[in-house]
Amino acid sequence: xxxxxxxxxxxxxxxxxxxxxxxxxxxxxxxxxxxxxxxxxxxxxxxxxxxxxxxxxxxxxxxxxxxxxxxxxxxxxxxxxxxxxxxxxxxxxxxxxxxxxxxxxxxxxxxxxxxxxxxxxxxxxxxxxxxxxxxxxxxxxxxxxxxxxxxxxxxxxxxxxxxxxxxxxxxxxxxxxxxxxxxxxxxxxxxxxxxxxxxxxxxxxxxxxxxxxxxxxxxxxxxxxxxxxxxx
Length: 232
Description:
Elements: H1 9-12, E1 21-24, H2 34-43, E2 48-51, H3 63-67, E3 71-76, H4 83-91, E4 95-98, H5 101-113, E5 117-120, E6 134-137, E7 140-146, E8 150-161, E9 166-167, H6 176-179, E10 183-194, E11 213-216
Parallel strand pairs: 1-2, 1-8, 2-3, 3-4, 8-10, 10-11
Antiparallel strand pairs: 5-7, 6-7, 8-9
């Protein structure tokens, strides 16, 4: 049995250097690889290109990397609740490539499947289509989008086994599954890591073939991005 378990978060980020392209799963603060992000901050790698739906909040998630000026480019679909993300984008300090959310997911899936590019109608006739090949199919116009090319993908799952098989929980599934196997090295952090064979094969969402490293996270804060309560 192939064992992909690593013993520390330090091993998880080993090999990340300046100028690399990283994929990071999550949607808002849901299902983000908290341990890996915190260790990337400690590692101090600079000029990173980060592919993620958004960039967390000012003091959590990818917002921590933005605070330390470790990210040179964000490829995202949403600026959202991160004031520092917005400030760096508007000031020109940060290169931001805003991508339709479905296109962002499909660019991950194409990389996962080994497809170099695909056609999509999303963005045709807008700034998104500038400089891209367009083509008509059945009377409808499409633009050609290239699959992502990333060095590392960092994802977060609920449970995993030592062979790298993963189970996601609820909405934390989001972008995590389509980022598995979409980079040269996929690192999965899980809340619970069990020996190979203990997971029900019918419940596995991502097979271990898409994962190169897996470790059990030490702590998950699981912040709520916005809490709204009814007045009494």
